[in-house]
Structure formats: structure tokens, C-alpha cells
Specification:
heterodimer; A: about 450 residues; alpha/beta; 3 domains; six-stranded parallel beta sheet; four-stranded mixed beta sheet; globular; B: about 190 residues; Rossmann fold
């Protein structure tokens, strides 16, 4: 089982980095707040987006069939994959058939989830992640720690050392501008030398058969405008009914993600460019299972903006790698147990249930509620560790008895400061214990009510 | 059973109760008193520059852009500008050395500074991303307030490439510091013509 608290240990031990990470990520949340504040219709847009996604999910199979028909008519080819293995097999098959050994990729959480890179690399294909943050973590043989900002856990000095080793930049160079320029030169050569480009998909338009990809760097566009083969991988839930619905999501996505009004490049692909091929791989990989579960299906509305990560106090204080899955943070903790409940049983507990994730979600997913639902279900299925189960039992027993609650309150005021701290509480100070219980304070309060 | 049928069957088996498609005609998107001013501001917020061409030609306005004035290889999809014949380019890789590219836009959106660019360059659309610097030409009468209005007005090409382009290429992947000029254009100037 992934023990989030244990995995967070190294991250929280470096106190300076922890506070820096917290601040850096919270800064993005604040930018989102500013972007939202200038739109009077923001809350209405969120409701609308949620309704559009709920509608689309309610007839997803029909929309997928419509999308496939239109995509084929536009000249694209469509493939279907039940799971990660089938997805990897299809992508490799396409590359192999065309003798591709050099692939450039832009960001796709789906392929991350499917383990595509190691799969292709094991078969002799050079895979170059072209998003700057993704290239950085790829150089370090690490997964991204954030779905929108893959290298947010790293300091510029560390990237400077990395680039010195990998790209030959001068020793000590840590200026983001100079480092980005070095990456630009390095990746230009990769773009020009690539035989195929692979992208994720932000939205797929059912009525037109188009796929939409959003980036700020332009890496998806360079990766697909030069080589003769473009492979676009998408989960079944990426569909929107038509272009007008797309407009609603584009207004929400970048504002929620980084506080920008829109990404620099929002590319609409309808079929391949003349003389080239476009292959769209539609992947289930557990999504139909989530759709079948009434209380959890809203999680499929997610547009991967990362706002719930940026606002989450647990994410900010533990870093993305503590989650041990491709998608970290509240949305990741809600999705991961569907794929492997046993392995990911610890993740729904990596939350304070404060509800901030639900408050910022642009498509109104009831994230903190789903986290709580998971806890109940995991306990019922016997997947919660013994210690946690024991504590929950005791808690329940105490909370059901007034006398026990009073007694334990008294004991906690005396003994809590003496208890050993472990996991993420190691670096935390308990607030000073009050001398009397709230009951006593209320009874003794001065003056009449 | 093939994967396609299997997936569609599994999605139908989920038996999600049907929900209505929301009516988008009722959405009141933000509107601005001065469309042109707000558009220019949004372009600047996206890291670009915006100039209004009141008198004179686009050609003379372009010469005011230092990167244009310094450019040797200029591609243009605005007729009468540039020194590179895109139709003669057989392989987009030949466009790697382009210094400047001028693109016409069908629409400009005031709320985000994005311009609607459709399949210009066809097989050679790489020029939009390879060029070191960009200029976009959009008519003042083609400005709209928000994306709802934009999608209500524009028609997606049944086949081909189209995009919203707002400002130059950028990244903040190193410590959240904004750097202009990630992979694509290092600068982007929008010329609004009347």
C-alpha cells in the first residue's frame, strides 16, 4: 500500500524547501483567484461546465460514436484501447510500422498513467518529453510532481546542475531565462529530428471530430507540425458535445490552472495536415468502471487544471511524489483507488477534508465528499491498516458516549503534548492545550448571555 | 469482442440516467465598454504587444516592430508582405530558419487577447511555431467580447488546423518565473486595423 505519510517523510524534513513549495504552489492558487475575480459570471460558468460534463457522461457512448464518425470523416484514424496495455501496444504498433525511433511528446497525464515512456524505451524508441518541466523530470528519471507544473518541487539551482550535466550549460548557471534558452535550443533539435509527435487531448469535440490541445510553450504544435505522424491519446471522458460547449471549458481551464485568461496555444486538430497522418487513441483504462459508480462518477468531469492540488494544504506540504501515482492531490486520491483499491488505499486519507478542493474545482466535483466516501468503503472492504482501523473504532466508541468523551477530553489535555509524533506530524507543534474543556469555559463565561 | 464495442458496451452498461444538454444561448458572458482597449490590455497581459493601425498600411506598421525590421527571412500569410513563398516549400523542416512570420486572424477576443488563426500554411503550418517572432493582423471589426461570442460566430473547419493564439510562447516551469520564448515565438505583436 502507498503510505502517503511515510513517503512524505523526506519532503517534510527539508523545512526550507517545504515552506518554499507551499508558497510557490499557493501563489498559483492566488493567481487563479485574481483571474476569477474579474469575471462576474464565474460561478455560473462552473455550474454550466458541471452540467455539460454530467450531460455528456450521461450519453457518453453516443457522443463517442459521433466523435469517431466525424474524426474519420476529417481524415483521422481512430483506435480503441480497453486498458493501459492495449494503449501502449497500439502506440508502439503505429510507431513500429513506420520505423519510428525518435518520438517527441507533449504533456499527457494519460500516457503517464499508462507507463508509455518506459514501455517504448524498452523497445528501442527514444522518447523526448518536450514540455520544459517534463523534460526536467525526465532527465532526473522522476515522474512529474504536479499535473500542470511537473517540476514545481525543484529549485532553480538544482535544475542548473542538471542542465550542466545534461546540456552542458556553464557551472552555476541558475537563471530561469538562461536555462529555458538552453532547453529551447536542445529541444528545437529534437523537434526537427523527430519522426513522430504524440500529444494528449484536453477536449474532443463530438459534433466535429476535432481534438483540442492547450499549451503555453507551443511544444505540442511543434511536435505535430513537423513529423508526418501525430498520435493523440485521450481518455473516453474528454468529450464535449460541440464547439460552443468547448468555449465554456476554455474560459475555465487556464484561469483555474495558472490564472491566465487562456493558454498561449489552443490548437484544434480536425484530421491530419496534408501529407501526414493523425491517429486518435481512445482509452478506457478504468473509466467505464468509475462511470458505473453513481456516487463517484462526477470525478470523470475533471479537466486536469490542477486547481485542487494548488489549494490543498496536504499537497502543498507533502509534494506530489508522496502520492506515488501519476495524478497527485485530491483528484488523484479520488481516482487512484478505482484502479487499484488495495495499493492506493492510503491516498483518500491524505486529506484534511477541509473542502477547499471542492470550492475551487471549475467543474464542481465533490472532491472532499468523495474522499470521505472512499474512506468508508476502504474500511468496509478491510483495506485500511490495522492501526487506523483501531483508532477509528476507539474514536467511534468515545464519540457515542458523553461520559467517555468528557473523560478523553480531560486525558487529551494532559497527555496529548507528551505523545510521540510520527509521519507528517513530526515537524509540527501542537497548540498549547487549554486548561479547561469548552464545556467548562462556557459554563464559567462572564456575564449574562 | 473488439475493444471498441467492449468499451461502448461497458459505458452503456453504467446506465447513467439521461441529463439534459444545458442551453448555452442564455449565458451572459462579460462585455466591455471599450472593446479595442480591453483587447489590447489582454494581449499585453498575455505577454504580447498590441498596436492600432489607424492610418497607413500594415507594411509600414510592421516596420515599427524592431524584430521585423531586423529580420531577414520573413514568411507571411498576409498578401504582399514577406520574402518567402510558402507554397514552394516542400518540407516544413525547411522553415527552421524563419525569423519572422505575419499571420492574419479572423477574430480577436477581448477577454483573453486570443486571435483565431485557421490553417494558414496548410502543410506548412509549422512556420507559425518555428518563426522566432510573430505578428498577427486583425481587423477592429472582428473583435468580440468573450469566447461564447467567438464560438457562436466562428465556424470550425471540417478539416484542417485552427487555433487560439495569445501572445508569445512562454513557460513558468522553473520556479514559477515567467520566461517568454519557450519553444515558439519569442515575441508576438498584434496589429489591429480599422
Amino acid at each position: 500500500m502507498i503510505d502517503h505519510a511515510a513517503r512524505a517523510k523526506t519532503f517534510v524534513e527539508d523545512e526550507v524547501r517545504l515552506h518554499w513549495h507551499d508558497k510557490a504552489v499557493w501563489f498559483v492558487r492566488q493567481k487563479r483567484d485574481l483571474a476569477r475575480a474579474v469575471l462576474p459570471e464565474w460561478e455560473e460558468l462552473r455550474t454550466l461546465a458541471s452540467q455539460i460534463k454530467a450531460h455528456t457522461l450521461s450519453r457518453l457512448a453516443d457522443y463517442l460514436e459521433e466523435f469517431e464518425k466525424k474524426a474519420l470523416a476529417a481524415g483521422a484514424q481512430v483506435h480503441w484501447a480497453r486498458d493501459a496495455d492495449e494503449h501502449n501496444l497500439i502506440v508502439h504498433g503505429l510507431l513500429q510500422a513506420r520505423g519510428v525511433t525518435r518520438l517527441v511528446k507533449s504533456k499527457s497525464m494519460l500516457t503517464e498513467d499508462c507507463g508509455l515512456n518506459p514501455y517504448l524505451e524498452a523497445r528501442g524508441i527514444e522518447v523526448v518529453d518536450t514540455d520544459l518541466g517534463e523534460r526536467i523530470v525526465q532527465f532526473r528519471h522522476e515522474p512529474p510532481s504536479h499535473i500542470v507544473m511537473p517540476a514545481i518541487h525543484l529549485r532553480k539551482e538544482e535544475i542548473g546542475v542538471l542542465f550542466h550535466e545534461r546540456l552542458g550549460t556553464p557551472v552555476g548557471l541558475a537563471d530561469p531565462r538562461a536555462l529555458t534558452e538552453a532547453a529551447r535550443q536542445h529541444l528545437r533539435a529534437k523537434f526537427l529530428g523527430a519522426q513522430a509527435g504524440l500529444t494528449g487531448v484536453n477536449f474532443a469535440i463530438a459534433s466535429t471530430g476535432g481534438v483540442v490541445v492547450c499549451t503555453n510553450e507551443g511544444n505540442a504544435d511543434l511536435g505535430t507540425a513537423l513529423p508526418p505522424l501525430h498520435i493523440a491519446c485521450m481518455g473516453v471522458e474528454k468529450l464535449v458535445p460541440g464547439p460552443r460547449e468547448l468555449g465554456v471549458f476554455l474560459r475555465l481551464l487556464a484561469r483555474s490552472a495558472t490564472g491566465q485568461a487562456i493558454t498561449t496555444y489552443t490548437s484544434h486538430y480536425h484530421g491530419p495536415r496534408p501529407g501526414a497522418e493523425l491517429h486518435i487513441v481512445i482509452v478506457d483504462h478504468g473509466r467505464s468502471g468509475i462511470l458505473a459508480r453513481k456516487e463517484f462518477r462526477r470525478a470523470l468531469q475533471c479537466i486536469r487544471c490542477g486547481a485542487c492540488l494548488n489549494t490543498c494544504p496536504v499537497y502543498r506540504h507533502s509534494g506530489g511524489h508522496s502520492y506515488g501515482v501519476a495524478v497527485a492531490g485530491p483528484i488523484g486520491s479520488v481516482l487512484a483507488p478505482h484502479l487499484d483499491a488495495k495499493k492506493n488505499a492510503g491516498l483518500p486519507f491524505a486529506s484534511t477534508l477541509c473542502g477547499s478542493c471542492t470550492d475551487v474545482c471549475p467543474v464542481r466535483i465533490d472532491l472532499h465528499h468523495q474522499l470521505l466516501l472512499w474512506r468508508g468503503e476502504l474500511a468496509a472492504r478491510g483495506l485500511v491498516p490495522l492501526g487506523k482501523r483501531f483508532v477509528s473504532r476507539v474514536g467511534r466508541w468515545v464519540l457515542l458516549r458523553t461520559w467517555a468523551y468528557r473523560l478523553f477530553g480531560k486525558l487529551a489535555r494532559i497527555f496529548a503534548p507528551l505523545l510521540p509524533r510520527s509521519g507528517w506530524t513530526r515537524q509540527r507543534e501542537l497548540p498549547p492545550m487549554p486548561r479547561e474543556s469548552f464545556r467548562a469555559q462556557w459554563r464559567n463565561r462572564a456575564g449574562p448571555r | 469482442m473488439p475493444a471498441r464495442d467492449d468499451i461502448l458496451r461497458a459505458l452503456r452498461a453504467a446506465e447513467v440516467p439521461p441529463l439534459p444538454r444545458p442551453d448555452l444561448s442564455a449565458v451572459a458572458g462579460i462585455r466591455y465598454d471599450d472593446l479595442r482597449e480591453r483587447f489590447a490590455k489582454s494581449v499585453v497581459e498575455a505577454g504580447g504587444r498590441c498596436a492600432v493601425v489607424l492610418q497607413g498600411s500594415v507594411a509600414s506598421a510592421l516596420l515599427q516592430i524592431p524584430e521585423y525590421a531586423a529580420a531577414t527571412k520573413i514568411a507571411s500569410l498576409v498578401p504582399g508582405i514577406g520574402n518567402l513563398d510558402l507554397t514552394a516549400v516542400k518540407d516544413p523542416h525547411e522553415l527552421a530558419e524563419v525569423d519572422f512570420c505575419v499571420l492574419p486572424a479572423e477574430l480577436g477576443v477581448a477577454e483573453n487577447g486570443a486571435c483565431w488563426i485557421t490553417d494558414h500554411g496548410r502543410a506548412n503550418r509549422a512556420v507559425c511555431f518555428l518563426a522566432q517572432h510573430l505578428a498577427i493582423v486583425v481587423q477592429a471589426s472582428s473583435l468580440v467580447h468573450n469566447l461564447h461570442e467567438a464560438y457562436a460566430r466562428l465556424e470550425l473547419p471540417a478539416r484542417g488546423f485552427s487555433m487560439w493564439l495569445s501572445g508569445p510562447s512562454k513557460t513558468a516551469d522553473i520556479e514559477q518565473s515567467l520566461v517568454i520564448g519557450a519553444h515558439g515565438a519569442r515575441s508576438c505583436t498584434v496589429l489591429v486595423t480599422s
